[in-house]
Amino acid sequence: MATIRHLFHEMPSDRRRQLTDLAVEVSMPRATRLFEEGRRADRFWIIRSGQVALDQRVPGRRAAIVETLGRDELLGWSWLFPPYLWHLGAETVGPVEAVEFDADVVRALCDSDPVVGRAMYRYVAETVAERLHGTRVRLLDLYGPQGSGLDP
Q: How far apart are CA 64 and CA 103, in angstroms?
């Protein structure tokens, strides 16, 4: 699981400070809608406690929950890649404590400082890769031969 500690792993302390200075601690009650699929991705979070359900619109039906994120996980990566639109929706499952970042400010920092930029892109890429792997395993469990999604 890619965590904020991993994000800071190879970053010198002055760069860590630049990023943590941008962080805002937030508390969100249960059933808070954080973002909607297709809307502008203008922030992201590192979850400190609680859970957030990611969902996808299904025409004629309720949105389908595709993943649930929890402690130390990155919530939101669409802010880093043009056209900066959310690919999914998100809602808190219960109360959530998180660290929030303004996407425009962090993107500007990444553009101006290659060390921070490389660390951020790597962190987000590893997060996306881990989630893609998890999705593939779930799909194999659902549609593949019995037990094919489980690692031996």
A: 26
The four Cα atoms 90, 96, 98, 104 give a dihedral, to 10 degrees, of 30
Distance from C-alpha of 10 to C-alpha of 74, rounded to nearest angstrom: 18
pTM: 0.85
Candidates 106, 101, 76, 84; CA nearest to 39 is 84
Give per-residue pLDDT as tens, 29-78. 999 999 999 999 999 999 999 999 999 999 999 889 999 999 999 999 99
Pairing of strands 52-58, 74-75: unpaired
Cα three-residue angle 124-129-134, rounded to 5 degrees: 125
